[in-house]
Amino acid sequence: MRLLSYGTTCRFQSPDPAERTRQLEIAKTFVDLADDTGALGIKLQPMGLPPGVPQETAIQYFGAAMRELGEYGSSKGTEIWMEIHGNGTQNPPVAAALLRAAGHKNVGACWNSNPTDVQNGSVKESFALLRPWIRNVHLHELTDDRYPFREFFALLRESGYDRYTLAEVAESKEPERYLRMFKALWTEMKRPVCS
Question: What pTM did the predictor assign?
Answer without folding.
Answer: 0.94
